[in-house]
């Protein structure tokens, strides 16, 4: 019995210490002038991301690329979480992108310039759907644009 | 004696690991993205290209459905996609709603195999295991 209590306390201590870590920067003070704040915060970014995913799925230029993701809810959830984290972090929000780097994620896919441009157009359409002002839209695209060499032709 | 000791320590280690994993799944503070309601995504196809007012009607009826988070039509208009919370609405109900009382035949779009973005297998397993273990 004493051994069991000892093991339980040990497990509790390990569990507690593990949970002391958090993947998000929860203590991060959000700058009210950051792009994250100007976009409307986390809920706005997740709403734009859902619209972006819907746009991509309806886009016959690129939707075949996402067939496996659409068919598998676990993959879809990871892609959605990664997209939200990526946009949120890039905009100065309290998230941390935990996915593969862009080059590793797209190597072997042979993504064309036309497909990349279609994806960007789908993102712009999602931002327009939520009336994101031109300044914020360009700022976000300016952050994501430099990823192109790691995505196209890999 | 040795095999008994081996069985006992293996059992204890397994029990302890399970307990730690259970505690980790339930006490760890989920990230912002992990707190989002999960969504499913379906791609549907209409049996004919809708006219502008018909497309607007399909969009409107889908957006009214509880649990729908986004709807999008393709440029040519026959394909549309919906992101929705599976706890609130099913794909079958979406398909029925989009048919506008059988004005259209709506089917799920299928694709030939194509290279997809790789998802690290460990991420997928972690996501599933933590999801199953989390009860609080």
CATH architecture label of the domain at 37-108 in chain B: 2-Layer Sandwich
Order of helices and strands of chain B: HEHEEHEH
What characterizes the major β-sheet of chain A?
none
Radius of gyration of chain B: 23 Å
Look at the structure and give the mean pLDDT of chain B.
Answer: 86
How many domains make up the coordinates of chain A?
A: 1
The top level CATH class name of the domain at 37-108 in chain B: Alpha Beta
User: Structural class given helices, strands, pairing of chain A?
Assistant: mainly alpha
Biggest interface between protein chains, with counts per chain?
Answer: A-B, 59 and 52 residues
Mean pLDDT of chain A: 87
How much of the polypeptide of chain A forms β-strand, as a percent range?
A: under 5%
- Measure the end-to-end span of chain A: 59 Å
Category from helices, strands and their pairing of chain B: alpha+beta
Task: Write the topology of this structure.
The complex is a heterodimer of chains A (154) and B (136).
Chain A: H1 2-19, H2 35-39, H3 41-58, H4 67-71, H5 73-90, H6 102-106, H7 113-129, H8 134-144, H9 148-151
Helix pairs in contact in A: 3-5, 3-7
Chain B: H1 2-27, E1 40-46, H2 52-64, E2 68-73, E3 79-84, H3 91-98, E4 106-108, H4 121-133
Antiparallel strand pairs in B: 1-3, 1-4, 2-3
């Amino acid at each position: 019995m004493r051994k069991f209590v000892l093991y339980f306390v040990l497990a509790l201590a390990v569990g507690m210490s593990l949970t002391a870590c958090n993947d998000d920067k929860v203590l991060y003070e959000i700058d009210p002038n950051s792009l994250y704040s100007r976009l409307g915060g986390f809920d706005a970014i997740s709403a734009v991301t859902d619209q972006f995913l819907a746009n991509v799925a309806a886009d016959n230029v690129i939707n075949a690329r996402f067939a496996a993701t659409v068919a598998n809810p676990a993959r879809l959830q990871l892609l959605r979480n990664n997209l939200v984290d990526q946009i949120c972090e890039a905009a100065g929000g309290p998230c941390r992108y935990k996915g593969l780097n862009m080059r590793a994620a797209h190597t072997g896919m042979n993504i064309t310039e036309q497909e990349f441009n279609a994806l960007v157009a789908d993102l712009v359409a999602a931002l327009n759907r939520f009336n994101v002002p031109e300044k914020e839209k360009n700022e976000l695209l300016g952050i994501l644009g430099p990823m192109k060499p790691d995505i196209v032709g890999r | 004696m040795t095999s008994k000791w081996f069985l006992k320590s293996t059992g204890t280690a397994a029990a302890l690991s399970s307990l730690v994993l259970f505690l980790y799944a339930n006490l760890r503070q989920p990230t912002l993205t992990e707190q989002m309601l999960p969504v499913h995504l379906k791609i549907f196809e209409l049996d004919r290209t809708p006219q502008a007012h018909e497309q607007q009607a399909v969009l409107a009826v889908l957006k009214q459905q509880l649990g729908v988070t986004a709807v999008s039509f393709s440029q040519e208009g026959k394909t549309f996609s919906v992101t929705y919370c599976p706890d609130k609405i099913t794909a079958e109900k979406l398909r029925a709603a989009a048919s506008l009382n059988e004005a259209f035949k709506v089917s799920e779009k299928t694709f030939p195999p194509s290279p997809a973005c790789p998802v690290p297998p460990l991420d997928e397993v972690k996501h599933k295991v933590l999801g199953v273990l989390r009860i609080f």
